[in-house]
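pasting for ref. prot 1 ->
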Amino acid sequence: MMSSALRARLTALGLITPLVAFLVIFFFWPLATMMMASVTDGTVRGVMPETAAAVAHWDGASPPTPEMQAALVADLRQPVDQLAFGDAVRRLNSELSGFRSLMSRTANAVKAAPEGQPVELAAIDPRWGEARYWQAMKAAMPLYTDRYLLAAADLERDAKGEIAAVDASASANRQIMLRTFMIAASVTILCAAIGLPYALIAASASGWVRAMLLIAVLLPLWTSLLVRTAAWFILLQNEGLINEALQRIGLISQPLPLIFNRTGVVIAMTHVLLPFMVLPIYSGLLTIPANLMPAAASLGASRLKAFRHVLLPLAFPGLMSGSLLVFMVALGYYITPALVGGPNDQMISSVIAFFATGTANWGMAGALGLILLAVTTVLYLVYGRLSRSPTMVST
């Protein structure tokens, strides 16, 4: 007979099994896949296994050995998926320009040669006699690499294997990453500046007034993100409602540039993310006793002093939660900057989408995504530390 305690444990395990399966399939597995893609590089190794084994023992300075050339010929004679071969050629070409034409010519010549007949690679193309092409192949062979993580920060390994900065014209990932953080920080500050007073008003109101204020906050969440962004695309145009209203009341004589620039991106993202700031602050304010402010006033504190020393410290956890949530969500925004922003306002999510769908470079996409994951994890840990700090508790 099964004991009642064991039965209760099995029942509890059965209840949480769907949740665990959901987290593993839709959260942990994609994260693990992204992290593995950012540090693995088996594209060339999978297509040229014999060459990988041959160049592993090469010192990189001496001329290419006959064993290395024979291994490359043997790999090129093997039937291989053309898509995989194309990916390997692109990987080699990114390591050293010229591999695309070199590998295409060599593969055709090797396959056209009779079976069993030795093939002289230098006779097909003199570049096979140069050590730098074999050095590029040797550099592309390791299964695990830090190439993508370094490239995400505009770094690379030089000929000596040391980390160095890439040419400023070769990549701008660091600049785009910094731009992403600046836009996310600007949106967070604006959401806090608008959301805190709004939450205070909503928490102090009652009846239908509070209901209408909350509906105004929740309404954007019930609307598609694409629809909200398209609405701002119409409002922010030179002939849009905002510029037309400002011109009619005489505040401006010429339309303000509000679209296809940083201003439009920040305005649209602030509107979209404002509910994520208001709701945590509002929830925290509801837990504050209503008699604290009158008590502070009865002790001689002015309204400003009571707000600074009584209400604001108690609302600070909600403000921190909203700021963390808005900042983390803003880091990964893609649709709004793509529609409302200009070429110099695209965020890192656009670069990730380009590498993932435009060039099928999952390594770079995973490396950039891993950087965003690391930043958000650090922010979450900092928030957890601040929320448990003795200073906040004593305040």
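and prot 2 ->
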Amino acid sequence: MRIAIQGIKGSFHHIVANKYFGSDIELVECMSFTEIPLLLENDEVDSAVMAIENSIAGAILPNYALIDEYNLSIEGEYFTNIHHHLMALDGQELKDVKEVWSHPMALLQCRKFFRERPEIKLIEEKDTAEVARRIQKENIKGVAAIASKMAADMYGLKVVADDIQTIKNNSTRFFILKKNNDSPYHPSKLGEIKDKASLKFVTKHDAGSLAEILDIFGKHDLNLTKIQSLPIIEKPWNYAFFIDLVIDDFVLYKNALHLISKKVTHLKILGEYHQNNAV
């Protein structure tokens, strides 16, 4: 299988791809999330791994927009603990580090560590593992990367500080994505029971419309695990809602969708899949 990931080998997306699909895969490395939907749309990859939210930094809103815009299908999810390590060339120590280059999300998740070391300059880069590789390849001294232990091992760097993330129990949720050839409103068949779903809907401009939708979910024993609003770009100050819910009874879920479809201006099933418990 050809699997698209954001970043290069040694990145957290690489780690998740191996855990979800196994190691017998061909990675297609992307330096930005925006490359991933195009690869799926053009059938250049079979599937993709995309981070969607972090327990410290919150949701990655542009990725919700990409999934919706390109009509991608969420085929699964994977939670993994994120352990950020500070790494540099062999022979370097923490006191030698003048700059740290890393992805903005990694820098954000390690802000307490760097707040206590204001002498270190922080530089935003596109990928954690790519910085680690560059430091090793170009023999860059005085610069450290924030990346996984896998990246340190792959690129021969020395870890100068372990687990520098602010919250030690730092978890990221990833979506497993595929090209979606289905219609926007196409629930799984009864024989294809899955226990989690991600939906997008747009409410009518009536008082209490969102509360009415949420009440339908509650009356059908559907537990919402996430609700996220996102602006509708072409309609300023209008919002779409993205939700995740756990399905205990597929018939009740299907009945709820039928009722909701009559009370919203837009309803789209982004994916129905097996839930992966948060770590």
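Confidence is low (pLDDT under 50) at residues 183-191.
The longest strand covers residues 72-81.
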